[in-house]
Structure formats: C-alpha cells, structure tokens
C-alpha cells in the first residue's frame, strides 16, 4: 500500500522488502521498484546487470564482473574471466585453474608440472639414444646418428 509521509499530507508508496527490495532503486508503487541505471528488477530486488553476461564470474555492479576463484579478467574482454595456471603451460593452454591441456603432438610432462613435452611415436622413431625435441623430431645423444630403415619404416640409431 501507501503510507503518509511524516510532516506532510502526502502519501508515498510502500515496498515490503520481502516482496520488492528497492535497494539500488526507488519504490514507485505498492511493491513496485524502479531500478537505477545498470540494475534490473529480478527475484524481488534490483540486481546489477552486466552486458555481456559475466563468464566464470559474478556481476557485482553495473558492467562489473568479479571473477570466480582461480580465474582473472581477460585483458581484451573484461566480462570474461579466464583460468589462471600458477606456472606457464609450455606447449599447451590453461583450460581450467591450474590445469594445462597439451597441444596436439605433445603430452603431459612427468617431471615438470603444467608442462607439455613433444611426443615421438616409437612406431616411427627409436627414442632410446636421444630425446624428442618436437613432434617426431629427435635429437641424438652424443656419438649417435639417425638412419632411416626402409624395411621397417623406422628411424633408428647407427
């Protein structure tokens, strides 16, 4: 309903906070709010609006995203929160907080966290006396050279 304004003969609309909480807005009729710019009336109250919608974050003010834990604002798109990896994802991409996904041709390193190492397929390259430096590219240990075997199709050491 309405209530009388103190010290006046005028009446003002009343908004019950359980029905229409007009914080960040004004009560304009019985349980009806007019929200301030940047806010919309939703779930019985004026809430901040972010356009575009926050991704991996929460809209905490008009067009202001606060990122979820483990995420940070993208430098080019402030409404997008991107995952954070505490160490760089070498040869991969940070796809979730502290989670690297390796690029094709790479696999997760067993020794360096959040690092991806190149893969050398043993069907094509004999890796026993060298180490893989790129996808199916081997660097020989000292004293060894690679040779291609047309019979097996395998590159092996001499």
UniProtKB/TrEMBL annotation:
TM regions (residue ranges): none
Domain named EGF-like: residues: 14-47, 49-82, 84-117
InterPro entries, sorted: EGF (IPR000742), EGF-like_domain (IPR053255), Growth_fac_rcpt_cys_sf (IPR009030)
PANTHER family for the chain: EATER-RELATED (PTHR24047:SF29), FI01909P-RELATED (PTHR24047)
Protein name: Wnt inhibitory factor 1
Organism, scientific name: Culex pipiens (House mosquito)
